[in-house]
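Known limitations

C-alpha coordinates in this collection are predictions and should be treated as such. Users comparing against experimental data should check residue numbering before alignment. To illustrate the layout, the record for Lipid/polyisoprenoid-binding YceI-like domain-containing protein is reproduced below. The input appears on top and the generated C-alpha coordinates appear beneath it.
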Amino acid sequence: MLRITTFALALGLSTTLALAAATDPAPTGTYKTDPSHSSLSWSFDHSGLSHYTARFTKVDARLDWKPEQPETSTLSVAIDPLSVRTDYPWPEKVDFDAEIGTGETFLAAKPITFVSKTIHVTGENTGTVEGLLTFRGETHPATLDVTFNGSMAKHPRMGVPKIGFSATGRIRRSEWGLDFAIPELGDIITIAVETQMVPADHSF
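Generated C-alpha coordinates:
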Protein backbone atom coordinates (compact mmCIF):
# COMPACT_ATOMS: atom_id res chain seq x y z
CA MET A 1 0.00 0.00 0.00
CA LEU A 2 2.86 2.37 0.88
CA ARG A 3 4.50 1.64 -2.49
CA ILE A 4 1.26 2.47 -4.33
CA THR A 5 0.80 5.68 -2.34
CA THR A 6 4.40 6.76 -3.01
CA PHE A 7 3.97 6.11 -6.72
CA ALA A 8 0.72 8.11 -6.79
CA LEU A 9 2.38 11.05 -5.00
CA ALA A 10 5.34 10.98 -7.43
CA LEU A 11 3.00 10.86 -10.41
CA GLY A 12 0.93 13.72 -9.02
CA LEU A 13 4.05 15.82 -8.39
CA SER A 14 5.33 15.18 -11.94
CA THR A 15 1.96 16.19 -13.38
CA THR A 16 1.87 19.34 -11.25
CA LEU A 17 5.38 20.35 -12.35
CA ALA A 18 4.52 19.72 -16.00
CA LEU A 19 1.33 21.78 -15.78
CA ALA A 20 3.13 24.60 -14.00
CA ALA A 21 5.81 24.68 -16.66
CA ALA A 22 3.24 24.60 -19.44
CA THR A 23 1.35 27.60 -18.07
CA ASP A 24 4.50 29.69 -17.60
CA PRO A 25 5.65 30.58 -21.14
CA ALA A 26 9.18 30.66 -22.46
CA PRO A 27 10.75 34.14 -22.32
CA THR A 28 12.03 36.36 -25.10
CA GLY A 29 15.38 35.22 -26.45
CA THR A 30 17.28 33.33 -29.11
CA TYR A 31 16.43 29.65 -29.45
CA LYS A 32 17.88 26.75 -31.44
CA THR A 33 16.75 23.33 -32.60
CA ASP A 34 16.63 20.49 -30.10
CA PRO A 35 17.74 17.77 -32.55
CA SER A 36 16.41 14.90 -30.44
CA HIS A 37 12.89 16.31 -30.61
CA SER A 38 12.83 17.71 -34.16
CA SER A 39 12.35 16.39 -37.68
CA LEU A 40 12.23 17.73 -41.22
CA SER A 41 10.74 15.44 -43.85
CA TRP A 42 9.82 16.00 -47.49
CA SER A 43 7.71 14.09 -49.97
CA PHE A 44 6.55 14.15 -53.58
CA ASP A 45 4.23 12.24 -55.87
CA HIS A 46 5.90 9.09 -57.26
CA SER A 47 4.34 7.83 -60.51
CA GLY A 48 0.88 8.63 -59.14
CA LEU A 49 1.13 5.59 -56.88
CA SER A 50 2.42 6.99 -53.58
CA HIS A 51 4.21 9.92 -52.00
CA TYR A 52 7.89 9.14 -51.67
CA THR A 53 9.16 10.45 -48.33
CA ALA A 54 12.66 11.21 -47.02
CA ARG A 55 14.18 13.48 -44.38
CA PHE A 56 17.17 15.55 -43.30
CA THR A 57 18.93 14.67 -40.05
CA LYS A 58 21.12 17.77 -39.63
CA VAL A 59 18.97 20.88 -39.30
CA ASP A 60 20.09 23.95 -37.37
CA ALA A 61 17.31 26.51 -36.88
CA ARG A 62 17.78 29.76 -34.94
CA LEU A 63 14.77 31.72 -33.75
CA ASP A 64 14.89 35.23 -32.29
CA TRP A 65 11.69 34.75 -30.31
CA LYS A 66 9.51 37.66 -29.23
CA PRO A 67 6.35 36.16 -27.66
CA GLU A 68 4.64 39.51 -27.06
CA GLN A 69 4.96 40.40 -30.75
CA PRO A 70 5.64 37.14 -32.60
CA GLU A 71 5.40 38.88 -35.96
CA THR A 72 8.66 40.68 -35.11
CA SER A 73 10.51 37.41 -34.50
CA THR A 74 13.07 36.21 -37.03
CA LEU A 75 14.04 32.73 -38.17
CA SER A 76 17.05 31.29 -39.98
CA VAL A 77 17.59 27.64 -40.89
CA ALA A 78 20.65 25.79 -42.19
CA ILE A 79 20.33 22.22 -43.53
CA ASP A 80 23.18 19.91 -44.45
CA PRO A 81 22.30 18.38 -47.86
CA LEU A 82 24.55 15.41 -47.07
CA SER A 83 22.29 14.52 -44.14
CA VAL A 84 19.48 13.37 -46.41
CA ARG A 85 18.13 9.96 -45.38
CA THR A 86 15.99 7.92 -47.77
CA ASP A 87 16.12 4.52 -46.02
CA TYR A 88 16.98 2.95 -49.37
CA PRO A 89 16.63 -0.82 -48.80
CA TRP A 90 19.83 -1.92 -50.62
CA PRO A 91 22.65 0.40 -49.46
CA GLU A 92 25.24 -2.26 -50.32
CA LYS A 93 24.28 -1.80 -53.98
CA VAL A 94 23.64 1.94 -54.20
CA ASP A 95 24.50 4.75 -51.78
CA PHE A 96 21.26 6.49 -52.63
CA ASP A 97 21.59 9.07 -49.85
CA ALA A 98 24.94 10.22 -51.23
CA GLU A 99 23.50 10.27 -54.76
CA ILE A 100 20.66 12.57 -53.68
CA GLY A 101 22.89 14.75 -51.51
CA THR A 102 25.80 15.22 -53.93
CA GLY A 103 24.49 14.51 -57.44
CA GLU A 104 24.44 17.47 -59.82
CA THR A 105 20.90 16.59 -60.90
CA PHE A 106 19.78 16.58 -57.24
CA LEU A 107 21.09 18.65 -54.29
CA ALA A 108 24.64 19.02 -55.65
CA ALA A 109 26.15 19.09 -52.12
CA LYS A 110 25.29 22.79 -51.86
CA PRO A 111 24.08 24.40 -48.61
CA ILE A 112 20.35 24.65 -47.98
CA THR A 113 19.12 27.70 -46.08
CA PHE A 114 15.89 29.46 -45.24
CA VAL A 115 15.77 33.03 -43.92
CA SER A 116 12.52 34.64 -42.84
CA LYS A 117 11.49 38.01 -44.25
CA THR A 118 7.94 38.44 -42.96
CA ILE A 119 5.89 36.71 -40.28
CA HIS A 120 2.09 37.00 -40.26
CA VAL A 121 -0.06 35.96 -37.28
CA THR A 122 -3.21 34.36 -38.70
CA GLY A 123 -4.90 32.99 -35.58
CA GLU A 124 -4.52 32.33 -31.87
CA ASN A 125 -1.70 29.85 -32.47
CA THR A 126 -1.15 29.93 -36.25
CA GLY A 127 0.83 32.02 -38.68
CA THR A 128 2.83 32.11 -41.88
CA VAL A 129 6.54 32.64 -42.30
CA GLU A 130 7.55 34.06 -45.67
CA GLY A 131 11.21 33.93 -46.54
CA LEU A 132 13.94 33.01 -48.98
CA LEU A 133 14.85 29.38 -49.57
CA THR A 134 18.24 28.58 -51.09
CA PHE A 135 19.40 25.26 -52.46
CA ARG A 136 21.37 24.14 -55.49
CA GLY A 137 22.81 27.66 -55.43
CA GLU A 138 19.47 29.29 -56.29
CA THR A 139 17.30 31.46 -54.05
CA HIS A 140 13.53 31.92 -54.35
CA PRO A 141 10.62 32.82 -52.05
CA ALA A 142 8.97 30.11 -49.96
CA THR A 143 6.25 30.13 -47.32
CA LEU A 144 5.69 27.97 -44.24
CA ASP A 145 2.33 27.54 -42.52
CA VAL A 146 3.18 27.37 -38.83
CA THR A 147 1.34 26.18 -35.75
CA PHE A 148 2.64 27.36 -32.38
CA ASN A 149 2.15 24.34 -30.10
CA GLY A 150 3.12 26.13 -26.91
CA SER A 151 6.07 26.91 -24.68
CA MET A 152 7.26 26.57 -21.13
CA ALA A 153 9.66 28.59 -19.02
CA LYS A 154 11.24 25.46 -17.55
CA HIS A 155 10.90 22.04 -19.07
CA PRO A 156 10.28 19.55 -16.23
CA ARG A 157 13.03 17.19 -17.42
CA MET A 158 15.55 19.44 -19.19
CA GLY A 159 15.23 22.38 -16.81
CA VAL A 160 15.39 25.02 -19.57
CA PRO A 161 12.81 27.01 -21.56
CA LYS A 162 11.34 25.23 -24.59
CA ILE A 163 9.16 26.25 -27.53
CA GLY A 164 7.32 23.90 -29.87
CA PHE A 165 6.18 24.36 -33.46
CA SER A 166 4.74 22.35 -36.35
CA ALA A 167 5.07 23.66 -39.91
CA THR A 168 4.25 22.66 -43.46
CA GLY A 169 5.17 24.10 -46.84
CA ARG A 170 4.96 23.37 -50.55
CA ILE A 171 7.41 24.35 -53.27
CA ARG A 172 7.90 23.61 -56.95
CA ARG A 173 11.34 22.04 -57.20
CA SER A 174 11.62 23.05 -60.84
CA GLU A 175 11.87 26.69 -59.73
CA TRP A 176 15.26 25.78 -58.21
CA GLY A 177 16.37 23.96 -61.36
CA LEU A 178 15.58 20.53 -59.95
CA ASP A 179 13.45 19.29 -62.83
CA PHE A 180 14.67 15.69 -63.00
CA ALA A 181 12.03 13.18 -64.21
CA ILE A 182 9.03 15.52 -64.14
CA PRO A 183 6.16 14.55 -64.40
CA GLU A 184 6.83 10.93 -63.42
CA LEU A 185 8.27 12.33 -60.20
CA GLY A 186 6.11 15.18 -58.96
CA ASP A 187 7.19 18.80 -59.19
CA ILE A 188 5.51 19.73 -55.90
CA ILE A 189 7.58 19.01 -52.80
CA THR A 190 5.70 18.95 -49.49
CA ILE A 191 7.74 19.85 -46.43
CA ALA A 192 6.77 18.86 -42.88
CA VAL A 193 8.54 20.15 -39.78
CA GLU A 194 8.14 19.21 -36.13
CA THR A 195 10.44 20.96 -33.70
CA GLN A 196 11.17 21.80 -30.12
CA MET A 197 13.61 24.62 -29.48
CA VAL A 198 15.84 25.48 -26.53
CA PRO A 199 17.93 28.55 -25.62
CA ALA A 200 20.79 29.05 -28.07
CA ASP A 201 23.41 28.82 -25.32
CA HIS A 202 22.17 25.43 -24.07
CA SER A 203 24.65 22.54 -24.28
CA PHE A 204 23.28 19.09 -25.01
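For this record: Confidence is low (pLDDT under 50) at residues 2-22. The two ends are 39 Å apart (CA to CA). Please report discrepancies through the issue tracker.
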